[in-house]
Amino acid sequence: KLITDHQALGSEVAQLRSEKKKALDEVEQSRTEYSQYVEAQIRVGADSEAVRALQRNIELERIVTEMTEYLNAKQMQLESVQDANRTLTKELQLMTKKYRDQNDDI
After folding, report:
1. What single string gives the DSSP state of each residue in 52-82?
2. pTM of the model
3. What burial letters (b/e) apply to 19-55, b meaning 16+ CB within 10 Å?
4. Alpha-carbon distance 63 to 69, whole Å?
5. 30 has a pLDDT exceeding 70
6. Which of 18, 53, 91, 96 holds its CA 20 to 30 A away from the CA of 61?
């Protein structure tokens, strides 16, 4: 049962990684388009304070994205460990019960 659970978790992690990659690609595309927008604003002579604000916004978005990715990865790790702990706890309880039942028969 533990092996089956482990395989199921592996499949789920693979799917989540695929979804994460797709989301990161979308974020990168948005970031690229936004950067191009900022460059266009600079070329047309937009207010320098507005350009700096846009540049800060780009940097903040990048930081938020990185932190979100990090937190999501940590959450996935935590959930995997919790699932493994639950499975091991159940198996340990079953083994303990079986051992006690065997000792009661003696």
Report:
1. HHHHHHHHHHHHHHHHHHHHHHHHHHHHHHH
2. 0.48
3. eeeeeeeebeeeeeeeeeebeeeeeeeeeeeeeeebe
4. 10
5. yes
6. 18
